[in-house]
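Worked example

This section walks through a single chain of length 442. The input is the sequence exactly as stored; nothing has been trimmed or padded.
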Amino acid sequence: MKRMEHEKIVYDIFEERGFIEQVTDESKLRDLFKGRVTCYIGFDPTASSFHVGNLVPIMSLAHMQRHGHQPIALVGAGTGLVGDPSGKDEMRQIMTYEEIRQNAETQKKQFSRFLDFAGGKALLLNNADWLTKLNYIDFLRDIGVHFSVNRMLATESVKIRLETGLSFIEFNYQLLQAYDFWHLFKHYNCLIQMGGSDQWGNIVAGIDLIRRLEGKEAYGITFPLIMTADGRKMGKTEKGAVWLDPQKTRSREYYQFWINTDDRDVKRFLKLFTFLPIEEVEEYGKLRGADLRKAKEILAFEATKIVHGQEEAEKARSDSRDFFLTEEADGDPIIKREKRKARRMIRIEGVSTQDMNNILIPTTERNREDFQNGIPIFKLFESTGLCASGSEARRLIQQGGAYLNEEKVVQFDQLVTLEDFRNRNAILLRAGKKKFHCIKIN
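Given that input, the structure is written out below as tokens.
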């Protein structure tokens, strides 16, 4: 007989929901999770908001708390001043103290959507509180002495960057993150560090430092890099990212992102990005064809509710249903009339910003001068996120699935000019049947 989810230890939850990539000692971790343990994940405030690519580690902290453990969300305002080279092809842009401070404040607000910080149930700490006070000579003598340069050079994230160039400031990052783990171990009895798969080397370095300084054991868990079924990385940090900040990505757009999930990803994303019982997720995973729309609605609603709240999630779901009416409802004459009305609205004739929001069309603003000489349409499909790359946009156009102002695009390099705006301030792009994007000019 299967145990109910509330009867399982959190390691079981992580395992069956797909959170685990690597662990340092599965047997010992399982023993620890039978009691109450403190864990942490660090988040460098390199952006003014989290995006969906940050959701796996944030959700893991929420699962820890839901199973009685104490999570620490560590805002890396100190390490953010250095920049983590992990997973990057080139050095991060050095940010100012003020930029880091502002980003850290925004992140703190977003954590509260996932974690309850009342009464020490979860802790929100900032590593600038101790890292910025370090004396460099003392740090080298007390901490640096325990690090082998040979071992650091063998770390995968460092080896990759050595090919393109690794700055000395970035090379120090591993020492600072290891120091964080030791500091939290020493002052908060934090026994576990968790993070993305690219953090394995840094986590192991912290475990080794704790062993050398304290003669005790600590542990690590890493999560897999989440890719969509069509090979895209979740939550890109470049243009097109889906942000958790409602000012950057509105609730309707956020809901629409999840409703457009590839059929192959629905079950996996329900496991990772909602708190629905695993037994319920398994049932949704059995749906096929048109019935899968129900599972996508559940995913979109639950994911939006976590980030934007119940009321905004309900509004987004209602708007989505009004616009994307199901084929089964086409026999109803009233619904057919409303569907035709919605279709007419998106033909861009006199569409207002408010109308655009109501029918769930993400909007990008561009300068009028950008279209003076024309922009190849395949580049617009890429830059708006309707396609993951220029080559994908070309395939979409060649297969007849690309539209400009509801007219099929036949040439991948067709130039979009001011003429296409026809004395209005917007054009409408469509990929397939359900993915839209409006471009406004100012």
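What to look for: The chain has 20 helices and 13 strands.
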